[in-house]
Amino acid sequence: MIFFIQILSVVLIALFFFLSALHFYWAVGGKWAFETALPSDESGTVAFKPGFWACAIVGFGLFTFGSLVAWSVGWISISFLPSFLQNIVWLIALIFLARALGDFRYVGFFKQLKTTAFAKLDTKIYSPLCLFIGLSALFIAILY
């Protein structure tokens, strides 16, 4: 079981660091995959267009989540309250599970809008990825 958690941890930490780097890339003006990562209505009007600070804050948050998971499985050694750390990993799980469920309009498995380019990618990639991240963090919080 420990081997499974270690493999899951590697995958989860790599995902967090990749997603963090992608958000930092967008923060400095990168365009690859930016438009398709924004929810829009049927007319193509995006729900919001994040700027530098929004992308940078999300990038920092994702980097922090990856670091916290690494810390929780013992890859980063900092003496701190283990129960606090486990609660943080639970919170990460809840955040991503809630994102997978969605807002019931633009994002998540239960969204109403399903025909836009974002909605199709959300159904195929983004929501399943959030579900995977949420369940992975949940397993780590429970089993480690």
Describe the model.
By secondary structure, the chain is mainly α. Helices cover 65% and strands 0% of the residues. The protein contains 4 helices and no strands. The longest helix has 27 residues, at 117-143.
| DSSP E strands, number | 0
Task: Give unreliable regions as ranges.
Answer: none
Strand content: under 5%
Structural class: mainly alpha
Largest sheet report: none
Number of helices: 4
CA-based shape: globular
Gyration radius from CA atoms, angstroms: 16 Å
- C-alpha end-to-end distance: 9 Å
Helical content (DSSP H or I, runs of 4+):
55-70%
Q: What would the average pLDDT be, to the nearest integer?
A: 91
What string, H for helix and E for strand, traces the elements in order?
HHHH
Quick overview of this protein structure:
With 144 residues, the chain is mostly helical. The protein is built from four helices and no strands.
List keywords for this structure.
mainly alpha, 144 residues, 4 helices
Topology:
Elements lengths: L1 H26 L24 H21 L9 H20 L15 H27 L1
Helix pairs in contact: 1-2, 1-4, 2-3, 3-4
